[in-house]
From TrEMBL:
Name the record gives this protein: Glutamine synthetase catalytic region
Similarity section: Belongs to the glutamine synthetase family.
PROSITE patterns named in the record: GLNA_ATP (PS00181), GS_BETA_GRASP (PS51986), GS_CATALYTIC (PS51987)
Organism, scientific name: Cyanobacterium stanieri (strain ATCC 29140 / PCC 7202)
Domain GS beta-grasp: 86-179
Amino acid sequence: MSGNQSRVQAIYQITNREIKPFNSPKRLEEMWAKDVFTLSKMQECLPKDVFKSLQKTIKTGEPLDLSIADVVATAMRDWAISKKALYYAHVFYPLTNSTAEKHDGFVSVQGDGSVISEFAGKVLVKGEPDGSSFPNGGIRSTFEARGYTAWDVTSPAYVMETDNGVTLCIPTVFVSWTGEALDKKTPLLRSNAALNKSARKVLQLLGHKDIAPISSSCGAEQEYFLVDSNFAHSRPDLLLAGRTLFGRPSAKGQEFDDHYFGAIPERVQVFMQDVEESMYRLGIPAKTRHNEVAPGQFELAPFFESANVATDHQQLTMTILRKMAKKHGFLCLLHEKPFAGINGSGKHVNWSVGNATQGNLLDPGDTPHSNAQFLLFCGAIIRGVHKFGPLMRAVVATASNDHRLGANEAPPAIMSVYLGSQLEDVFEQIRTGEIKGSQLAQTMNIGIDTLPVIPKDPGDRNRTSPFAFTGNRFEFRAVGASQSVAGPLVAMNTILADSLQWIAEKLEAELNQGVELNDAIQKVLQEIMEKHGAVVFGGNGYSEEWHKMAVEERGLANLPTTADALPSLRYKEVEELFEKMGVLSPVELESRFEVYAEQYILSLEVEAKLVVSIAKTTIYPAAINYLSKLTSTMASLNNIGIKLDTSAIEKIATLVNQLMAEVEKLSEALEKEDFVDTEDHMKYFAQTILPMMNEVRKYADALEGEVDDELWPLPTYQEMLFIK
Ligand code: ADP
Ligand code: MG
């Protein structure tokens, strides 16, 4: 189709689309966890002793008793077959942010040619998907390319029903032949174990006797954009890179704030309900939905769950959003910055730590006793974020999230902690050692019996902080919309585990010297604030002053791009942290650096190639067409004595030449192959290629403002954002 024909067609299709009303809403109980092999379903169909043994494994994380695997597998198979499943899949989470699965049939051919459905314990607990093409950062050479999946008993199996059939899905870890983690789940489970160990020590020192297993929880708020697929299909950049590489901002953007929390468009609401039904059936507690700030942008948040299950559910949520969008004629964009000039999408990761006996350890609680405990855990986090700020930046570093961080809509690339004014005041008093309790209007002594109650409301919200305390949890706001939440959770769990271990050792040493517990706690907290208080910041994180103060006065790192941030995975102290906590070996950590760096380079390379090809084959021809239309019209008018101002022709011709000169520069720059190392390669893309892409875009977008709309081939911002 030439000119704007595809756009006209798209608008015709969209405006004539029949919105199918949501088929009668079902009762929640009817849908809830219908497709999950839940504990209660297991209890129904497993012998008592088998169920008990399995339940123990789930609760304590102890290894599964292999002698029960066959019984469990048979029960799981029978349940899956009753849901019409013919296949099963070990689902795993490679170092890309995606979900991977390999399907195998239950079919087993017998000697007499008949078939039966077979699913033995050994294939339930272990699979060998090969998967040698997944990025592994050098852990596996091809000759030992075997990778194994192993059932994660703590995350329930489920059936995935699509139009193409039903599959039993088993969440698994993915490890190499030599036992190294090739995935995102293994370190998450390990980080939780490390956290359990250190937190337990601290709780014991505080006098607790009965301590249930401690684990982290996560509630991840997912932002996303919906664009009608009729438009998306005419935008190679959206299809291949997930973001617009060109596009002039529409005259109206988000400045009226009229989209935020506005009425959800009918078609989108039907989509959302379909998404939620799928989520409920899979036992994912979808809880909140609303329009977000930018036009065409929405948010979905579930109720929080244990970090491991929440992570699996988050991956499923992204899959469901994408799949359901297709069904409803949308493209769902999880990219952090699909459109220039309006807000991008994040994924706030709400995180807390707790157990069944002591409850939420980040809840200030109602009693002085729990307060001391709370201050220690909170202090541990302050220490961790300060010591490992660059790591916290690295775990949210991707090519796409770089567009968002520091772009005055999302937190800056400087890691700081927001506590709210009251809590900040408490910690400031701890730091100075002059504990008077100004804002609390009470005299304050830190100690397990004497501390006054800290108000639960942290005071005002601060949207400019990357890491904010929100009453009974921390909210890591720098996480990108398309990211797996596993990496950020691993980092938070591990730095907390490390700090708690440090605290436990300090407290123990003090107690051994005969210091009173209250005094010891106060001393440890004071030391934390003296050394690490610089990371606490309650002001405007977007401001120039903060950027200056953070770096120059407080010594915090400002790592604006992934190329700056990822190398911190190679810092000695980061390596030691992960090794000491038993979360990642140096080899595993290095492999992550390699994989993420490679992904960064590859994503920018794809984008740069797209910029060149779209500019050359789509935008340049449109501009030339317009030029020729203009010149011939002006010539004809000239023939009958009418003279038009020809400066428009010159202006457009100049823009076209500038555009093509920049395209040429970019193409040449992409030829470079000799790089010192991976870090050099990343820097080249961040500092040379990306600015060149922006230059091409500048002229292309200027042309969009000049060329006859009838000749413009790419769906515009206005169309993509406002027509639904
Ligand atoms: P807001 O939009 O104001 O940030 P929401 O009420 O939407 O807050 O909640 C954000 C997320 O935080 C939800 O997923 C919620 O379940 C989760 N959350 C609430 N309490 C906790 C907690 N203690 N630990 C982890 N996540 C939590
Ligand atoms: Mg939030």
